Amino acid sequence: MLEPASDVKGEDDLTSEGQEASLLKRVGLSVLHSNTSFWQRSREEASEAEHSLEALRREAQLRQARCQSQLESLARDAKEEQERRLISEKVGQELAAIREEMRRKEAVEEERLRHLYRGILGPKGPASESGGSTFLPPQQKGQSSPAFTPLIVSEASLLDSEPTWDVGAVPLKGDLDLLSGKDFWPSAPAAPAPASTRDRHGGKASGRSKDMRDATKLLQVNLARLERLERCGL
To answer: Does the predicted TM-score (pTM) go above 0.70?
Structure first.
């Protein structure tokens, strides 16, 4: 009787084991299926992350290249600006040196011309400063003579007034006798006799008129002399 009972018990154990196996099989398949989808999803996410990182890397490289080009452009501009500034400063210094050299040469030339004109014209006397005559007063005793002989200034053109000499213009013997005569070279007027004290105090007007007459007579004599010289061709 006991043996059949043991057989029934063994069959029940087999049935329970089969159910557990089928249950585990079903659970394992679902777990396996969930693991596969997880790994697939993980690979997809990793791939997307790699693509994103690659895009970020490319964008960073592009921005770096742009920044590098901008920095190089700014560096070139700064270098060109510095070169222009240095060239401008150098040109300004050269121009200043040239202007200073020209100013110095002009000052030296002006000083040289001033000394030259001073040597030609001589020192200015009181007569030249007053504008009355271009002749210098006679040198007094004890005064030093000027460095150069003063010149006589004439406003008329001497080249046009100079006569042209030819054979016919040579003075003849009669003309030479005329030139050597006493009439051509009149003697100086005789000195007046010393007047008395009464004439000095009382006849000032008559003395002045006499001086005027003497001056007029001397002027007429000189004019006659000039006319004779012109007729002789001198």
So the answer is: no
For residues 141-164, one letter each, b for 16 or more C-beta atoms within 10 angstroms of the residue's C-beta and e for the rest, the string is eeeeeeeeeeeeeeeeeeeeeeee
Report how far apart, in Å, the C-alpha atoms of 32 and of each of 19, 133, 141, 169 are: 20, 140, 147, 154
Q: Which residues contact 232 (CB under 8 A, 6 or more apart)?
A: 171, 175, 178, 179
Ordered by start, the domain boundaries in the chain are 24-123, 168-234
pLDDT per position as a tens digit, 103-158: 999 999 999 888 888 888 766 544 444 444 444 444 444 444 444 444 455 555 54
Give the burial class of 103: count Cβ atoms within 10 A of its Cβ; 0-12 exposed, 13-18 middle, 19 or more buried. exposed
Give the amino acid at 43.
R
Structure tokens at 109: 């030339």
